[in-house]
């Protein structure tokens, strides 16, 4: 049964917040946030490992690995973390955008181009459905990203302390 308030929605299908959420949830990078903690951390470690491809030569140019192994490892690890930080920022911005679109009682949309934007006030049942999705699906993802960012910041601080002790 199709809800009449949703079927009368003037927002194009690809701009409806629920459809944007469903697309984001299955897209390549964003779906990793919905995995179990173990799988999610594994994906983050893969991003960090792949970032070593760029970070290792830069660290080796600064600190010869056979002479300054600890500095090379810390510099490379810190440099490789940039890839993870950029990934986390992209994930956070994408999920926050969808959260805001779902949570908002009024949706801005474009009918045929950038020059003819309109707004649509969500009916109460659509607003309640969207806010439930935010509460039970998106907030845990955003919290996971925040926890990951805090852990990464902690590791960078620990690396800085170790660097100064060398």
Automatic annotation (TrEMBL):
Keywords: Membrane, Transmembrane, Transmembrane helix. The chain crosses the membrane at residues 45-63, 69-93, 145-165. PANTHER family: PROTEIN CONSERVED IN THE GREEN LINEAGE AND DIATOMS 27, CHLOROPLASTIC, PTHR34214. This is CGLD27 family protein. It comes from Hassallia byssoidea VB512170.
């Amino acid at each position: 049964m199709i809800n009449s308030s949703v079927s009368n929605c003037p927002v194009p299908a690809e701009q409806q917040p629920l459809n944007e959420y469903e697309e984001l949830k299955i897209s390549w990078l964003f779906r990793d946030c919905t995995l179990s903690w173990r799988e999610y951390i594994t994906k983050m470690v893969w991003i960090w490992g792949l970032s070593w491809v760029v970070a290792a030569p830069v660290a080796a140019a600064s600190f010869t690995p056979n002479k300054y192994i600890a500095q090379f490892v810390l510099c490379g690890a810190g440099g490789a973390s940039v890839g993870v930080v950029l990934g986390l920022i992209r994930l956070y911005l994408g999920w926050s955008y969808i959260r805001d679109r779902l949570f908002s009682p009024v949706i801005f949309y474009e009918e045929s181009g950038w020059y003819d934007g309109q707004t649509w006030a969500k009916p109460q049942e659509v607003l309640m459905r969207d806010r439930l999705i935010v509460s039970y699906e998106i907030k845990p993802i955003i919290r996971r990203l925040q926890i990951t960012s805090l852990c990464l910041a902690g590791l960078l601080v620990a690396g800085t302390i170790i660097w100064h002790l060398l």
